[in-house]
Amino acid sequence: MTTYSINLDEIRQRAHDRANDFDIMLHTLEFRAEISDEALDALVERVAQPIIHAIDCTQCANCCRSLHVYLTPEDSTTLANFVGLDEIAFDDQYINHDEAHVVGEWGRFADRPCRFLQGSLCGVYSHRPETCRTYPMLTPDFRWMLTDLIEGTSVCPIIFHTLDAMERLLDQLDQHLDVPPVN
Ligand code: SF4
Ligand code: SF4
């Protein structure tokens, strides 16, 4: 099985070194209108699957240390019940609404790293917020999320290795996608 580095210093350096290549991929994909979003997403999922399988997130946890975690009211209720606080007390202790509202979200954890992180493990794993369950979200709409994903290459090894692999396919995209020839 291929191994993928989760050394965060190395990932940051490689993300920096590849930034121009990723930008070229972004602009190339924007102009390849004949490639449907669905076909591109299917390829991304094929490329990402072995990377996700090979990387052990419990050895990394950089997202839990580095990123803002946005919450819904349902996330808050679930977590409050799980930690045994009433919802008002949980809100006071854990949630920042003002900064979340600036970006149109309901709330986010007030602290980074996340207070539920225990070493590199999630202390509320079975009750974690939806944002945590879906991160890193590579699809749907890979093409239209690529700007944000490029930013994520210096944070998340899964994102870095997936974009690294996708960029290497760029010259032969038509061979990997069911794209009709251009007349
Ligand atoms: S709730 Fe768990 S998965 Fe989500 S950021 Fe905190 S430690 Fe990480
Ligand atoms: S999702 Fe990315 S940043 Fe988070 S633990 Fe897994 S590899 Fe690390």
Fold and architecture overview:
22% of the residues are buried. Strand 4 and strand 5 (121-122) form a beta hairpin. The protein is mainly alpha-helical. It has two domains: 8-29 and 38-56 and 136-170, no CATH class; 68-134, no CATH class. 56% of the residues lie in helices and 6% in strands. Helix 2 packs antiparallel against helix 9 (142-152) and helix 3 packs across helix 10. The protein is built from eleven helices and five strands; from the N terminus they run ααααβααβαβββαααα.
Categorize the overall geometry. elongated
Query: What's the oligomerization state?
Result: single chain
Helix/strand structural class: mainly alpha
**What is bound: which ligands?**
iron/sulfur cluster
The total strand number stands at: 5
Descriptive labels:
183 residues; mainly alpha; 3-stranded antiparallel sheet; two-stranded antiparallel ribbon; 11 helices; 5 strands; binds iron/sulfur cluster
